[in-house]
Fold:
Amino acid sequence: MVERTLSIIKPDGTQRNLIGKIISRFEEEGLKIAAMQMKWLSRREAEGFYAVHKARPFFGELVDFMTSGPVVIMALEGKNAMAKNREIMGATNPAQAAPGTIRKEFSLSIGENTVHGSDSVENAAIEIAYFFPTTAIVTNQL
Ligand code: CMP
Structure:
């Protein structure tokens, strides 16, 4: 099933010049970029994006971190894109991430974990719509 998912390269990734390396992983695994934007999130945008985590003790820390530098936001497209992206990223906590995954290789901590990826196909549609109007998404399948 060709589907889309949302990916964010977090401030620790942009700060350490990992954008190209991370995008290469997605492309090497057959995912295509259907939309892409670099931006510095406002607190309001970050709080809205992570609203589901509002009651968690780490919410303030998460919003502080996500607004500490620019991020790269992408809609990735491909066969089983949501699950494939999660496989490429590895577990949320880099200490538990499998060898060869982005988080195992690059992440500093559970907070500074370099990439975000949607956790379900339903959430992917919501998250993509949060950042990209329909007109900014290109169907990238030839
Ligand atoms: P992400 O996939 O972006 O979704 C929510 C984020 O919250 C998650 O990645 C982590 O970066 C962050 N997070 C989850 N658990 C913790 C924690 N215990 N402490 C700090 N940040 C966390």
